[in-house]
Amino acid sequence: MSLKNYSLNALRVFAVAANAPSFKHAAQQLELSQSAITRHIQTLEQQLGTPLFHRDNRVHALTPAGELLAPTLLNLFRQLEQSVEQARSCGDEELTTLRVLVPDTFLRWWLASRLADFSAIYPHIRVQLDTYPEDEQDLQAAELTQRLQHGQIDIALVAGKLKDRSLQQELLYQPHYCPISSPSMTTSAAAPAIPGHWYANPASSVWQTFVKQQQKLSQAYPLLSVPKASIGLDLLNSFPGLSLINTLYAQHPQFAQWTLHAKSSVKSKSAVYYCLKARERHPVAVVAFSKWLSNRIQQSLTATT
User: For position 80, what pLDDT does the model report?
Assistant: First the structure.
């Protein structure tokens, strides 16, 4: 007789009754009547073709067959309960936790202030964020790829595509950079009125592109080299001068009183992509965040033009 011919309810009732002091206690645990307990056990005994309990009202004792079966069934049902609980917890937590890796500047000047909007739309999705230095992406490309491949993160934002065919990479937006000056500077970057500096990394591709396309403006002030673009923007809080900013970040409150010289913008050589491990079907949380991110970025870019 195959396993499918045995009553699962009868097996569960027997597992509880065999480890309870009496059928009365088993009935209380299972919220059944004592007569129902007896019927289930009799059904199982008929299916097995052997008694499982001694028929003596004074003794609640198992037969040799019952002693053999009871511990095995009890362990199986305990494992089943654990698996069901883990599956329930997985549905409540792991499947709705989205691990996202973004450049530090993207989180600081754009994403952080908009996460409440995403949570309001998708309250069942928890976004777990991690960052990497935007200026060091090339150095960390191998690590970013490995973390995506191994499922340590679900989505990563990168400038330019990662060199790995096992990843799915979707275009998010094409960054533009333009000069921005602090309130202590003149409103016309082309006609400086007070001393100041350019704060930029001369080795960055963005600055080199700007120098080629905006030669006159790039030479309007002496260049003070900084290792990171974010440092240049922070220096403008205290010192007069200009720096280059991703126009996507220009709406941040930190830059509300600063002057954005949009007519002198240049396009970055590297578009921004969101990368994820290639698969036929992505989790709902991944799809929801990707669509929300793309939509909100396009809204921001439209507002700055």
Answer: 83
